[in-house]
TrEMBL record:
InterPro entries the UniProt entry points to: CvfB_fam, CvfB_S1_st, CvfB_WH, NA-bd_OB-fold, WH-like_DNA-bd_sf
Domain Conserved virulence factor B first S1 span(s) in chain numbering: 4-63
Domain (Conserved virulence factor B-like winged helix): residue spans on this chain: 220-275
Family assignment from sequence similarity: Belongs to the CvfB family.
Organism phylogeny: Bacteria, Pseudomonadati, Pseudomonadota, Gammaproteobacteria, Alteromonadales
Protein name according to UniProt: GntR family transcriptional regulator
Organism domain of life: Bacteria
Transmembrane segments: none
Organism for this UniProt entry: Thalassotalea litorea
Length: 281
């Protein structure tokens, strides 16, 4: 059975002048308009299509990919506001509605907001909400320290950045441990740093110890290969210069450089270091 608000792989059951009809199971046959039908398609073929309601509230299919599917979070721009609410550009002909009662703050045209795409149980329509707390788990998080997780960057705070962890919980990245530019809506990998006594989650973008060194080493090697095997930074360089070049702390830079020296992949010069033949393999 086809799922509304998601990309489905469906079979073509009928070809017509206006498009292809797809087998939606209990939802019946769903029209894929002719402009979206892949060239050479015929009855019996399968097609990947997103199912949603058009401007006349009819189920319709498209091969265009929306910026977010049902149950996903996305950072979307407001393109219109009327008496029904705000409408977001989510990459489809029909914009995505955020009803007024689902707006954490009143939305304005031209601004972007982090929202959750949901299906309204009363109207059965796909909509969005910026009231994110109601869609995140209220139960204490159960993660292991050092566990890798998927993050969606949310709001900037006095302490750092709030982030959604694995689409389930709120977590916090502290300012003094962030060494790269972050933006609202950004999807990024992170790690569990700590679970506080109140169940709140502290996050970090790099693993500690040898894991952090292993994470950065390939990036440093790639940098050297892209710069004729040479880097003019060294252990006396300022933390600001290192962060600007690589987006990591000076401690991580020095640890990684030391590990590469130990394995003979780089060698020190009077000002900087360079890649060896062993490191270039």
């Amino acid at each position: 059975m086809a799922e509304v608000g998601k990309i489905n792989t469906l079979n073509i059951v009928k070809m017509t002048d206006i498009g292809a009809y797809l087998d939606g199971g209990d939802l019946g046959e769903i029209l894929l308009p002719a402009k979206y039908v892949p060239e050479g398609s015929e009855e019996g073929n399968s097609v990947d299509a997103f199912i949603y309601f058009d401007s006349k509230d009819r189920l319709v299919a498209t091969t265009e990919t929306p910026k977010a599917q049902l149950e996903e979070f996305a950072y979307l721009k407001v393109v219109q506001v009327n008496k029904m609410g705000a409408f977001l550009d989510w990459g489809l002909p029909k914009d995505l509605l955020v009803p007024y009662n689902q707006q954490k703050t009143r939305m304005v045209v031209g601004s972007s907001y982090l929202v959750k795409v949901y299906r309204d149980h009363h109207s059965d329509r796909i909509a969005a909400s910026s009231k994110l707390d109601k869609y995140l788990d209220i139960w204490p998080a159960r993660y292991e320290i050092g566990e890798q997780v998927d993050l969606i960057i949310a709001t900037k705070t006095d302490l750092g950045f709030n982030a959604i962890v694995n689409n389930q919980h709120w977590g916090l990245l502290y300012d003094n441990e962030v060494f790269q530019h972050l933006r609202t809506g950004q999807n990024i990998k992170g790690y569990i740093k700590n679970i506080r006594g109140d169940g709140r989650v502290d996050l970090i973008l790099t693993r500690g110890g040898i894991g952090k060194v292993n994470d950065f080493a390939p990036a440093l090697i790639a940098y050297l290969k892209a710069h004729k095997g040479y880097c003019d930074l060294h252990d006396k360089s300022s933390p600001e210069d290192i962060k600007r070049a690589f987006g990591v702390s000076k401690k991580t830079f020095k640890s990684t450089l030391g590990n590469l020296l130990k394995h003979g992949k780089v060698e020190l010069l009077d000002k900087g270091f360079r890649l060896t033949d062993k490191g270039n393999k």
